[in-house]
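ok so I'm stuck.
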Amino acid sequence: MGRYDVVVFDNDGVLVDSEPISNRVLAEYLTELGHPTTFEESVRDYMGSAVHRIHDLVLERSGRRLPDDFDDTFHGRVFSAFRSELKAVEGVHEVLAKLDADGVPYCVASSGSHERIRVALRKTGLYGHFGEGHIFSAEDVGRGKPAPDLFLLAAEKMGVRPERCAVVEDSPLGVQAALAAGMDVYGFASMTPRERLGGATAHFSRMEQLPALLS
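replied:
not stuck anymore, here's the structure
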């Protein structure tokens, strides 16, 4: 029996290299709407969060609501950029193949919408690793990360106890959510400094380092 019964992957920034694209699009769109935002501020404030958090923070800071069609416009721009630019995170195909070879089940649990997850996984050739039953979105639960609901749902659907799950995350909100769910969490510090992923069981900066940490 391995150390973990299931490995739960975040999607954006862990499986697919989407954070540079989506944060660039978000910063440009918010700036266009009169909420000046740099790429760095977008990464700091919004990376790893569900879209409702963007609405909440903008309202809190500016006293103004984002337009009703914000989500549709934002997602449309992100999908369009994904279709031309998105790639898998380097080394992730090999990590999934190793888990397959070792007979360790895995799934994806993402703050993104079901549509966004599928667009990303299909474009990067990762969709075949997962299949429909192993994709979980913040849309499936009432509260996104940092609440533990999404990770607890993934464990339940995968038929394992939370403490038998390892989560792979690259955002502070995701690490908090995994800890709140009672799961070990491995912090992928490629775009986020290690110190912002506090509480993680271990940190790594290159995907090929992950299998050794999990075994």
